[in-house]
Design brief:
By secondary structure, the chain is of the alpha/beta class. It has 18 helices and 19 strands. Helix 1 packs across helix 2. The longest helix has 23 residues.
Length: 506
Amino acid sequence: MPIINSFISWLMKKRIHQIELFMKYPHEVQQEVFQKLITTASNTEWGNKYKYHEIKNYAHFSSRVPLQDYEDIKQYVVRLKQGEKNLLWPGEVKWFAKSSGTTNDKSKFIPVTREALEECQFKAGKDMLSIYCFNNPSTKIFQGKSLAIGGSRQINQFNRESYYGDLSAIIIKNLPFWADMLSTPEQSIALMENWEEKIEKIAASTSNENVTSITGVPSWALVILNKVLEIKGKNDISEIWPNLEVFFHGGVSFTPYLEQFKNIISSPYMSFLETYNASEGFFGIQDTIQSKELLLMLDYGIFYEFIPVSEYTTENPKVISLQEVEKNVNYAMLISTNGGLWRYKIGDTVQFTSLNPYRITISGRTKHFLNAFGEEVMIDNAEKALLAACQKTKAVITDYTVAPIFLKNKEAGAHEWLIEFKENPNDIHFFIEVLDNSLKAINSDYEAKRYGNYILQKPIVRMLPNGTFYEWMKQRGKLGGQNKVPKLSNDRKYIDSIQTFMKINS
């Protein structure tokens, strides 16, 4: 183990220098990524279709290759799953990351190539550790194990040589030997399909380990940690894992979960660091302790473009390169990747908080926001307002979802919030008041629509019994992995489903 630790430390120092280089020369690095992507894919079916061998610069590329979403590439994905090669990227694709679906499909299957694994996901994992160790020179993270909380994998029914599953499961299955040695639980448990059984097995098998770090989605990490506490008969994870020092989290905003983690992890040395990854790629890492901003990672085989959110739904939206972005503007992100995605609309919105180096915050989803009345409330707005309401009323939230109540019979509309509290607010009416006023302060469009209660009334908050979201997700077959409670929606599909579920089970 000391030899492995020395080898890892050497890798970390080397990589920090490379990160500093792309921070200093971002556009040169992105140009190199662009040229490599175009050259590598020039003899694929996609590359031949759009004459990649003729593309000399970004202007050629942007004028020739149309914007894509999953529906546009689905025909290629179907063929890749059947074993066809050289379609979007050279060679065969053996892994497909399963993620939440589109209007027409229950699930999306994102191709995960060897390059996407090695040059993006695994590289990001090393960078995550490198940055943490650089900022914490006295760390003992490698003297213990990392609790990796992932999903499951299944054999692809179309081609027995390929697999699909949560991205986290794909990563766990393909981990480098040194990373696998430092991870817990063992793969047979980590990749179990039955999530409830997996919770029990993970908690039982790791409760006596020396866990020094955790990686995963906050909501499911909490479920595991609470099960560990239950097994050990304790109230504090720091008593069970005294050397635990960091939780690398992603997938959902950490804001609603922070207090819950602090309530069960008392160690003053515990760090919570955000990452930004998805089935389509790994994009950002929190690189400073002082700020929650994410450093945009520019050398992972991903070429970035951006659409101002104000243009997103227009027929021919304005698309800009990294060089043209401005601070504090909401952008929808486009990516071209070594996984064979080209000018792909990932569905996330970001804001740049710094242009030297390029740092971002995740502001929301292009489909997950509230705009039923022209209020344009993003997830970032909602969670800042929730945090303010929780702080003022000593509340702790487990999870939530929001949808509109539409205008009817001359009665103004409203936002309906279904909230499951870990600790109830000491005054629910004051909670609603702070939530409403905070949204007004954060979002001028919301403030305008709330004026005089003509369009929007005060928010309606309904407190759900403990365990409601978990049981609802379970009933939908959405436990574990990358499954998340939908936060904001412009229709009532999720809220009506939850309320129907509650009536049936009351």
